[in-house]
Write a structure and sequence with these properties.
Elements: E1 2-8, H1 13-23, E2 27-34, H2 41-54, E3 63-65, H3 103-113, E4 118-122, H4 127-135, H5 139-142, E5 145-149, H6 165-169, H7 171-178, E6 184-187, H8 189-195, E7 197-198, H9 200-209, H10 212-220, H11 222-232, E8 237-238, H12 240-249, E9 254-264, E10 275-278, H13 280-285, E11 293-299, H14 301-311
Parallel strand pairs: 1-2, 1-4, 2-3, 4-5, 5-6, 6-11
Antiparallel strand pairs: 7-8, 9-10, 9-11
Helix pairs in contact: 1-2, 1-12, 3-4, 4-7, 9-10
């Protein structure tokens, strides 16, 4: 059984990652922490609470509020998910309310009370994780594994030509986390386009399920699917966060990976938030560039799509 804490800026695919953790028989979602990111902070909180409720788990999984702003930069909303992060769905307010403890303390307390047992899925800017580490550095060696969705594999970003959204929003936090000594697996935007995008036929298969959760999927994914059609010219549904969660639950979905060194650019206007990935052959050439992450190069798209579909039935 995979015990998970998900740190999220809940919008769009973040909700499907939560559904995987909430409904897959091999996963237990211990807590949700909210970080600045996709849409207005309070809306992200409501999106997480409603997702837990629509999954039939209302009141069972605590939600903790974290950092509403990045460490240094100014928060900028994403445009991929609509202003509410849910394709303007207008979902009702969930009955469950967030906990009073701050997310940073919730992360520290859960990890230190369960050394070597909790895996974190970081699918938002890394502000909460960086500040939790700076407050209690021992979490880096007491977390079982840290799965990060962010950055690119030396490829084109989705915010600037060089940067992916999560790292662009708070590169200072990302730099702290990658230098902290966590056991990290990195799932990038590059991987999303390679292995985490499901076809229009798969989306139609989900629609035909016609269950409450499949209808939730179709509603929440509407605007991102429209944006993908505009940007990439094909009707795909992109799933960076839920692919990361799926790989954490079932690592056999990872078909190719490498141990690499990841550096984050924190200065400049053009390259800010860029993830520089040193491949194994370059790590060997630079002794001070010890590998600090495993990067997923390729994942089982069909297996991922089947897992996602299974929790929507």
């Amino acid at each position: 059984m995979t015990r998970l804490l998900i740190d999220t800026d809940t919008a769009g695919d973040d909700t499907f990652s939560l559904l995987l953790a909430l409904r897959h028989p091999q996963a237990t979602l211990e807590a949700v922490t909210i970080c600045n990111g996709n849409v207005a902070f309070d809306q992200q909180v409501e999106n997480a609470l409603y997702t837990i409720e629509v999954a039939g788990r209302g009141g069972e999984v605590p939600v903790y509020l974290g950092c509403a702003q990045p460490i240094m930069g100014r928060w900028q909303a994403a445009t991929m998910h609509g202003t509410d992060g849910m394709s303007e769905a207008g979902f009702p307010r969930a009955k469950q309310r967030p906990e009073s403890k701050h997310a940073i303390d919730a992360i520290i307390d859960l990890i230190m009370a369960n050394p070597g047992e909790i895996e974190i899925i970081a699918q938002a800017p890394l502000t909460n994780l960086a500040l939790a580490y700076l407050k209690e550095p021992r979490i880096a060696r007491n977390v079982k594994h840290l799965w990060i969705m962010g950055g690119t594999d030396n490829a084109v970003g989705n915010v600037t030509p060089m940067a992916e959204f999560n790292f662009f929003v708070d590169p200072e936090a990302a730099a702290v986390v990658f230098r902290a000594g966590f056991p990290i697996t990195l799932s990038t935007w590059t991987l999303t386009l390679e292995s985490g995008s499901i076809s229009a036929a798969e989306v139609e298969r989900i629609a035909r399920l016609d269950t409450p959760l499949s209808r939730f999927f179709m509603t929440v994914s509407r605007v991102p699917r429209e944006r993908a059609l505009e940007r990439y010219g094909t009707a795909i549904s992109t799933h960076p966060d839920s692919l990361t969660c799926a790989c954490a639950i079932d690592p056999s979905l990872i078909l190719a990976s490498d141990d690499v060194t990841v550096d984050i650019e924190v200065g400049g206007d053009i390259a800010r938030g860029t993830s520089s990935v040193y491949p194994p052959r370059m790590v060997e050439r630079w002794p001070d560039r010890d590998a600090n992450a495993r990067i997923i190069r390729r994942a089982d798209t069909a297996g991922f799509a089947e897992m996602l579909t299974s929790v929507l039935r």
